[in-house]
Each structure stands twice: as C-alpha cells, then as structure tokens.
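Q: Here's a chain of 125 amino acids. Please give me its 3D structure as tokens.
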Amino acid sequence: MVNIDINEDYVKITYTGKISIENIKKAIEELHENPKRRSKMNSLWDLRNTDLKDVKSRDLKELAYFISNKKEKISSKIAIVVGKDVDFGVARMWEVYAEIVPRERKVFRNMDEAIIWLVNETKGD
C-alpha cells in the first residue's frame, strides 16, 4: 500500500507491506500527475514498514533508468528512509545506480535526519 502526502516543503511517499518496482513506478507516475505537486519538489520515501529483501539488482537498475527518463519532473532532492539493515543495503544500491540522474539523493535510517537534510537548501551535507 502507498500513501502520498504533499505538504509545503516536500512530498512524502509512505509504503507499507510488499513493495515492487512496478508499484514504485506507478507511484511516481501518480505523483507527477498530481496538481498539488510543484515542479521538482523534494521527496521523502518512507520505506520503514516495507520489505526490500526480494528486490533484485536488475529491478534497481530498471528503476534508475525509469527515473532518468523523467529527470525534468523528478524531485530535486530524494531522501529514502528504511528501518532494517538489509533494506538500507538495497536502498544504497539504488542510490549508486541512480547516479545517472542529476539529483541529490541519500538513504537514511532516521526520519528526523532525513527531513532535516531534505529541507536544508544548501548543497551537500
């Protein structure tokens, strides 16, 4: 299940339960079509209540290429928050594949740290 919440500072996409690359692609499409979303608005992906252990490397590459084809629409900064070590590893693999997309991205284990990084206007950490 996915929930998309658009606030003043960023878009929060929260997943619960099983996740697939197709689910993520669908959420990205829905997000881009949402009239409340501003162009290149920062995004926070909350994956703490999902399980990424079945996501394969080829799926992560596919997602990176999917996003790279939408680079004019995607978020300026992308924060991903996970709850388990294995999910952190998977999300970091995506972070590496997504280097083809000219956007800042970072994986976190802590929601507060992710939000602080996301709303900070300066480049880098």
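Q: Can you summarize the key feature?
A: The domain at 2-119 is CATH 3.30.750.24 (Transcription Regulator spoIIAA).
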